[in-house]
Amino acid sequence: MTARTDLVLQKEKLAQLPALLREGGIDCWLVWVRETIQAPDPVLPLILGADLVWPSALLFTPAGERTAIVGTFDADLVPSELYDRVIPYTEGIAELLRAELARIAPQTIGVNESRDDVGADGLTAGMKDVLLDILGGTPHAAKLVSAEGVIGRLRGRKSPLEQARIRGAVRITEQLFDELDGFLAVGQTELEIQGFVHRRMAELGVGFAWQATANPAVDAGPNKPFGHGAPSSNRTKAGHLLHFDMGVQAAGYSADLQRMYFFGSSEHVPEEITHAFITVRDAIALAADALRPGVRGKDVDAVARGHVVARGYPPFAHALGHQVGRYAHDGGTLLGPPWERYGDAPNGVVEAGNVFTLELLVPTKNYGQVSLEEDVVVTETGCAFLSEPQQTLRCIDA
Question: I want to staple 307 with a disulfide (CB 3.0 to 4.6 A). Which of 11, 218, 283, 323 is the partner?
C-alpha cells in the first residue's frame, strides 16, 4: 500500500461526497478533530489519510468545496490534490472557523455523532463542547445535525479500489484456509493451530481484521462457547468438528470468513452435523438471493432466520450480516433483526457497493455449533460473492 495509491482511494471517496451531502440534506459537513493518533475519527482515512494534532476542521459542501483549517505544523499533511484550500493557523482556530461558516452560510452543519453507527461517531464529547463554545453567539450552534447518514453511505458505497482491496484480503484469508488443509491433524491444540496462522500471516505481511488474540477464533469440538474469545489448550479429536472465524487486513481493508472442518472421512459425517451444515449453507444462499439494492437490512435477516427456524433450530442470537471495509465491522446498515441492541441499523436500506458478511450458526446436540460466514458485494441487481462459498465440510483425515 503506497501513499500514492491511498491518494487515489481518497479521491474516489471525496468524489462521492457532493451527491451524498445533497441526498442527506447537509449544507456543510464539518469533521472536527484533534490528536487523531490518540482519538482517531473512523472516517479520517477515507478523506485525508493523515493524523492531525491541533484542533482541525475539514469542511465539505454539496458544491464540491473542500477546505481544511489546520495547525501550521499540520498544513503540509493536507494534499492539494484533495483540498481546494488549506488554511493554517498558529494561535487559535475559532475565528477562522467562524469566518468559513459565515462564508458558506449553511442551514445545516453535519457533525460526526451517532447513537447507532460507531463508524459515524467520531466526534468526542470534549470536542463537541469546544465546538459549541466556538459557535456560541453565532447562528451556527443551532444548525448542528448528525452526519451519520452521509458517513454511512460514504463508508458503505465501496469504490472500485476499495472493492479490489477487500477482494485481496478475502483471497489471502482463503489461501490460509487452504494451507490449513495440509496442516491440521488430530491432537493439536487450538493455540497451536492459531500459532500456525499467525506465523503465516507474518510471512505474508498482512495484519489482523480484529484483535490478534481472537483472530483466528479456533473452536475444537463440542462444549466450546462460540464468540469473540481466544483459543485455548482444547485439542482436536477424531469425529469432532473444528470451527474458524478468521480475517486478514491487507492494504488497509479487511476480510471476515468462517469455515467448518470435520476430523474424519466425508462418508462418516454424522447426520446431525450434515443437517446443521446444510441448514446454514442454504440459509446463506437464500439471504444472498434476497440481498439487493433497496431492501432493508432486517428483511434480508428475516429470510435466513425463517429458514433456520423452519429447519427445526432456534433463531440465531446475532445479526445475519454486518458491513466490511477498513474494519471487519464497518458500520452503516446492518442485516439484522429489529432488536434494541442494534438501534436503527437494521432499518437501513441496502445500496449498491455495500460489502456485507452473511453468517449464522445453528447448534447440534452432540457436536457443538455449526457456523459459516461469507463476504458479498451488492451489485446494481443483486449481490456477488467475494469469497468462494463453502459447500461441504472440509474433512481432515483422522
Answer: 283
E strand map for 38-176: 56-60, 66-71, 85-89, 109-111, 144-146
Length of the chain: 398
Give the C-alpha separation, 204 to 170, whole Å.
14
Q: Does the 3-155 domain belong in CATH 3.40.350.10?
A: yes
26: closest CA among 153, 180, 146, 187? 146
Element (H, E) at 378: strand 368-378
**pLDDT at residue 4 greater than cutoff 90:** no
Sorted by sequence, the CB contacts under 8 Å of residue 23 that are 6+ apart come out as 149, 150, 153
- Binned at pLDDT 50, 70 and 90, residue 1 comes out as very low
Give dist(CA 165, CA 224) in Å, integer. 33
Sign of the CA dihedral running 348, 349, 352, 358: positive
Backbone angles phi, psi at 286, to 5 degrees: -65, -40
Closest by CA to 371, choosing from 245, 263, 197, is 245
Where do the structural domains in the chain lie, given as residue ranges?
Answer: 3-155, 157-396
Label residue 223 by pLDDT band (50, 70, 90). confident
Cell match 464539518: residue?
30
Cβ 70 vs Cβ 88: under 8 Å: yes
pLDDT tens, residue by residue, 319-357: 999 999 999 999 899 999 999 999 999 999 999 999 999
